[in-house]
Amino acid sequence: MATVVLKRTGDKMPLVGFGLWKVTKSSCADTVYEAIRAGYRLLDGAGDYGNEKEAGEGLRRALADGLVKREEIFVTSKLWNTFHKREHVAALAQKQLELWGIDYFDLFLVHFPVALQYVDPNHRYPPEWWGDDGKVHLQNTPMQETWEAMEALVDSGKAKNIGVSNCQGSIILDILRYARIEPQVLQVELHPYLTQEALVKLAKTLGLAITAYSSFGPQGYVELGIEKDVPSLLSVESVASIAAEHKKTPAQVLLRWATQRGIAVIPKSNSAARLAENLDCNSFNLTEDQIKSISTLNINLRLNDPSEIDPRLGIFA
Ligand SMILES: NC(=O)c1ccc[n+]([C@@H]2O[C@H](COP(=O)([O-])OP(=O)(O)OC[C@H]3O[C@@H](n4cnc5c(N)ncnc54)[C@H](OP(=O)(O)O)[C@@H]3O)[C@@H](O)[C@H]2O)c1
């Protein structure tokens, strides 16, 4: 299996993983079990996805049945915005580990560079973006405090690697000014409608591994009813014709466009057939011209932008 070697630990992060956002809760344990049986070795979860317990059930069943050993599976999870204060980070990571039923994460990410007011998990979990009054409540916790608490997760063995998500260059460079343990992975929205070339270049320069999310662009947002009025990347002519040339599917071409450049992907699917199709995206090579031609689809279309929830959350402004 193709992997990305993480700089600090030398750990191997699979280039293709399984994304858990929107994986139906009632079938999540079975889907995760099937994903592992199909050959997935990376599970991308988050407290916010509300299915960590079910994903953990699927994982534990796969471990018990001998499909894999724990050290052969790379489990990623993420710290939610309401838990950025120093005293909350370890407690939440521990809670998330207990939901999964494992004793360490291979990778733990700060989900967004946004601190929101604490919500007691006994009151509401996952807390999402809003308080009980339906409003967003910001909290003045600087990233340095959160990052130091993330480093403590490595010290205590709760996380083997730590990283960030939804961060642009300026915040990454800021973290590097004080980091005792540098972020190892940057997980960001990245697809042919949002190619993020400058950010990719910066991450490569820094030796920061990139994981692309929402590789199928608007497709991942259709099920939420919040897709934009643009043609589906899965049917756009240039992608479809390149797929036909290689006798592959448009989905596989979209994934290969990233993985061939060393960018990891974490496609989500509730379907066993599509899940297998996505995992098989590294079995062919695009030409340089094909990669370039797909990149020309860029329109800087960002689908996951918290400023649409509240303009004070303009992290991509
Ligand atoms: N860090 C962050 O803030 C963040 C944000 C967003 C996502 N993520 C992570 O990235 C993962 C993937 O992103 P995403 O969920 O936005 O979307 P995605 O993987 O780009 O797209 C998923 C959508 O594509 C469909 N699909 C999957 N495989 C397909 C195929 N081979 N052919 C045609 N359609 C296919 C799925 O439908 P079916 O299920 O019906 O197959 C679903 O509607 C998430 O699950 C999550 O783990 C992270």
From TrEMBL:
<dbReference type="InterPro" id="IPR023210">
    <property type="entry name" value="NADP_OxRdtase_dom"/>
</dbReference>
<dbReference type="InterPro" id="IPR036812">
    <property type="entry name" value="NAD(P)_OxRdtase_dom_sf"/>
</dbReference>
<protein>
    <recommendedName>
        <fullName>NADP-dependent oxidoreductase domain-containing protein</fullName>
    </recommendedName>
</protein>
<dbReference type="Pfam" id="PF00248">
    <property type="entry name" value="Aldo_ket_red"/>
</dbReference>
<feature type="site" description="Lowers pKa of active site Tyr">
    <location>
        <position position="78"/>
    </location>
</feature>
<dbReference type="InterPro" id="IPR018170">
    <property type="entry name" value="Aldo/ket_reductase_CS"/>
</dbReference>
<feature type="binding site">
    <location>
        <position position="111"/>
    </location>
    <ligand>
        <name>substrate</name>
    </ligand>
</feature>
<dbReference type="InterPro" id="IPR020471">
    <property type="entry name" value="AKR"/>
</dbReference>
<keyword id="KW-0560">Oxidoreductase</keyword>
<comment type="similarity">
    <text>Belongs to the aldo/keto reductase family.</text>
</comment>
<feature type="active site" description="Proton donor">
    <location>
        <position position="49"/>
    </location>
</feature>
<dbReference type="GO" id="GO:0016491">
    <property type="term" value="F:oxidoreductase activity"/>
</dbReference>
<feature type="domain" description="NADP-dependent oxidoreductase">
    <location>
        <begin position="17"/>
        <end position="298"/>
    </location>
</feature>
